[in-house]
């Protein structure tokens, strides 16, 4: 057994604490796998006074990043501090000082992943970021190793635990969005500023990372068409369920030939679809490959120990690569040039819910709008809701985004349409 | 781009055909990843005449294994011929000739995996077998890499597609075992001799492989306590469902402290458990780790292309390792000494279904048998079925296998018990 591998940890929040715990509790198993002990030499914290009751605090803690970046004994830097600019600066300096890096920072990787990977490669260092997508679920290895021989054509992910928790509670308890959000915040499942989660931005970052790897192209965050869950109502969920569907916030990355589309939005999935059974704060990524067909990775998408599992598993690979002398050599640059689909190429079914005047001719007028565009219905429901107003919910057969946008605009202008209440994409096949 | 990597393929059945197809169809993506082309130089077949209409048959095919094992240009041997003795002999000779090996052979790995891995290591060759468990699902990488930092405490697998298909159809269509088995054979989902599948032996082999890796110990096939699905009835499935459970053939590997248990048997799982939604011929492995909590890998457990995906993904890793000069160096020997639990240590809930005499005192007599052993009921149903006979179904709270065996023996002897119809373990928590 050779000398302990020395680690520097940037950040000591939720994930950092989990990393320290796993390295301590699983030391024997880790040492067996990598052939030497693993020791955290320094932890960068913002406020030294906060941690004075930790054992060894004086030796272990520092508020000067140079104590880690300039320490030649430290061979691996784990970045779990979050944020963009400072974290990026530290990671680049660590790589340039020939330190391997493991990060859990999805914001940073989604925005600057390609640049950082290039710097890692130039410095013969590893840069791994399994924890940046779907917490403990080993989806990045799944794509880059387990399915490395296949051609991935589609990925559908429930990759944000907060929004999945909110939608689950809305569906199960029949409670309104604001109500469930407030509860989630009280329980610590949602941030006090939940914007990044509920507006779909967090999921978009993860989908950009997955699409880059799964499609082997440089996908950027702005390629993702994003819509959050803030306008989802109980009615939408209940009507979807009556029609055999579940309403979920889905990150969708689709490839047809050389062209891709990328979106995060609330979608209807058939109730029997495996993603529809992913409840509460759990995450799952459904992957379609040409050869394998469909496969799914399921697990906890956040939390201290689950996320730390992914970080420390990356660390195991980093240390193994160090011992084999192959650090920085597993990087595969993108093979394909990114080409986004136009609205004429994006194909989908759609759900739309309308309030219409409950009078003769309404239905004929509505259906003629769809018929004019050659779009037929898979399912249709109509029932009266109040004086002279009826509610209509429709699921169309597959059409293009351009055609649907024309239909939508037309419906909004119609005299007989009192209000377009909601509209969602429908993916994952037909309901029973 | 350097010279093509030359492959020898042993076997040209279902999986072999898939391997050839993926290497051909995904050549560009594969070459990009590994840095050179991949070419199948020779395919070992039993009967040359069967394949004469294949392009290049004369050059590509051989019925002499030496054409592969003695060819110095061939650096990787893929074994997809199946069987034990011959395949083992060929693999050992390939490894001794410094050829890396990828195999899909679960029977061989379950029986001789440790020996073969040792020979691979001694010859600085890789030996990978992702395809041996759960077809295309990258579960072996999941355990050995994605969850490498965690301590796995439990694995529950639906790892045999044939039996899962049969149980799904029995449940959905209310049809008898024999009837569904005959249909599955006609459709090609079941072998003409289905023994290995329906008796649980195939699943046992896969669980032995998973337990060896997940628990880092040398688990052998005979450590697995096996019971198949041949005696499962529609009634069992229906009563389980009424009590909130699904009946599935589950491979269970459990570790408590230093002691493990390993079994394959039909079990009841709560209907909301993620494994309960795994239908038809699909496979899934549910993994519990101390740090990650629960995670699941889902996908096609068999089939030409899905299984070939796992084989060729292994091939990608083999070729990458060759180029990095680290072949045979990823092998981690077992860390722990295997210790099996005794029947006093195996804990579980149980379902038991009885036909009893419908007379005063029966119920009191039954419950006293359980009460004497301090075993209480989670759920209980009783209803009359024919003249003076009632059916009783019970789900117990957790007890040990020893205690349950005593209760079972006692019940079988009782006057008021006409017949013990069935008995199953209940795992995965409580039903709602």
Automatic annotation (TrEMBL), chains A, B:
Keyword Mitochondrion belongs to the record: no
Alphabetized SUPFAM superfamilies for the sequence:
ACT-like, Glyceraldehyde-3-phosphate dehydrogenase-like, C-terminal domain, NAD(P)-binding Rossmann-fold domains
The reaction(s) annotated as catalysed by this protein in its Swiss-Prot or TrEMBL entry are: L-homoserine + NADP(+) = L-aspartate 4-semialdehyde + NADPH + H(+)
> What EC number(s) are associated with this protein in UniProt?
1.1.1.3
EC class of the enzyme, as a word: oxidoreductase
Keyword annotations for this protein, in alphabetical order, are:
Amino-acid biosynthesis, Metal-binding, Methionine biosynthesis, NAD, NADP, Oxidoreductase, Sodium, Threonine biosynthesis
GO BP terms: namely: methionine biosynthetic process; threonine biosynthetic process
| Entry binding sites for NADP(+) | 10-17
**Active site (record annotation):** 206 (proton donor)
**Can you tell me which residues bind NADPH?**
106
- Identify the residues that the record assigns to the ACT domain, covering every copy: 351-425
What cofactors are annotated for this protein? a metal cation
Q: Enumerate the residues binding L-homoserine.
A: 191
Coiled coil (residue ranges): none
Q: Quick one: which pathway?
A: Amino-acid biosynthesis; L-threonine biosynthesis; L-threonine from L-aspartate: step 3/5; Amino-acid biosynthesis; L-methionine biosynthesis via de novo pathway; L-homoserine from L-aspartate: step 3/3
Q: Name one GO molecular function term.
A: homoserine dehydrogenase activity
* Entry-linked PROSITE patterns: ACT, HOMOSER_DHGENASE
The UniProt entry, under Gene3D superfamilies, shows:
3.30.70.260, Dihydrodipicolinate Reductase, domain 2, NAD(P)-binding Rossmann-like Domain
The record's comment on protein family reads:
Belongs to the homoserine dehydrogenase family.
Entries under PANTHER family matching the protein: HOMOSERINE DEHYDROGENASE
What is the protein name for this chain? Homoserine dehydrogenase
Q: Which organism is it from?
A: Sinobaca qinghaiensis
Q: Lineage, please? A: Bacteria, Bacillati, Bacillota, Bacilli, Bacillales
């Amino acid at each position: 057994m050779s000398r302990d591998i020395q680690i520097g940890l940037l950040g000591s929040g939720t994930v950092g604490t989990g990393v320290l715990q796993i390295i301590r509790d699983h030391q024997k198993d880790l040492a067996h796998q990598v052939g030497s002990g693993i020791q955290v030499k320094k932890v960068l914290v913002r406020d030294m006074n906060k941690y004075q009751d930790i054992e060894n605090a004086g030796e272990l803690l520092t508020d000067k990043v140079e104590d880690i970046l300039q320490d030649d004994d430290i061979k691996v830097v784990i970045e779990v501090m979050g944020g963009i600019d400072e974290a990026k600066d530290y990671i680049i300096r660590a790589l340039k000082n020939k330190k391997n890096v493991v990060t859990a920072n999805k914001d940073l990787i989604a925005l600057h992943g390609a640049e950082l990977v290039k710097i890692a490669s130039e410095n013969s260092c590893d840069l791994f970021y399994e924890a940046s997508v779907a917490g403990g679920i080993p989806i990045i290895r799944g794509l880059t190793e387990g399915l490395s021989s296949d051609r991935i054509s589609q990925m559908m992910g429930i990759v944000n635990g907060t929004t999945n928790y909110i939608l689950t509670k809305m569906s199960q308890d029949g409670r309104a969005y604001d109500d469930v959000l407030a509860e989630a915040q009280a329980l610590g499942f949602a941030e006090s500023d939940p914007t990044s989660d509920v507006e779909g931005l967090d999921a978009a970052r993860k989908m950009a990372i997955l699409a880059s790897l799964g499609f082997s192209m440089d996908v950027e965050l702005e390629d993702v068409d994003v819509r959050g869950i803030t306008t989802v109502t109980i009615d939408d969920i209940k009507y979807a369920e009556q029609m055999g569907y579940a309403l979920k916030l889905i990150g969708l990355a689709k490839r047809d030939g050389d062209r891709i589309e990328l979106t995060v939005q609330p979608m209807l999935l058939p109730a029997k679809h495996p993603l529809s059974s992913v409840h509460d704060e759990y995450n799952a990524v459904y992957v379609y490959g040409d050869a394998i067909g469909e496969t799914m990775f399921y697990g906890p998408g956040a939390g201290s120990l689950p996320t730390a599992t992914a970080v420390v598993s990356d660390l195991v690979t980093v240390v193994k690569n160090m011992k084999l002398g192959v650090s920085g050599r597993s990087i595969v640059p993108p093979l394909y040039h990114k080409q986004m689909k136009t609205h004429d190429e994006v194909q989908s079914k759609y759900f739309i819910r309308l309030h219409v005047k409950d009078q003769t001719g309404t239905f004929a007028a509505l259906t003629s709008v769809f018929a004019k565009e050659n779009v037929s219905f898979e399912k249709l429901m109509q029932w009266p809701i109040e004086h002279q107003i009826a509610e209509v919910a429709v699921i169309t057969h597959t059409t293009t985004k351009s055609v649907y946008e024309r239909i939508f605009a037309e419906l909004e202008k119609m005299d007989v349409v009192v209000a377009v209440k909601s509209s969602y994409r429908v993916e994952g096949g037909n309901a029973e």
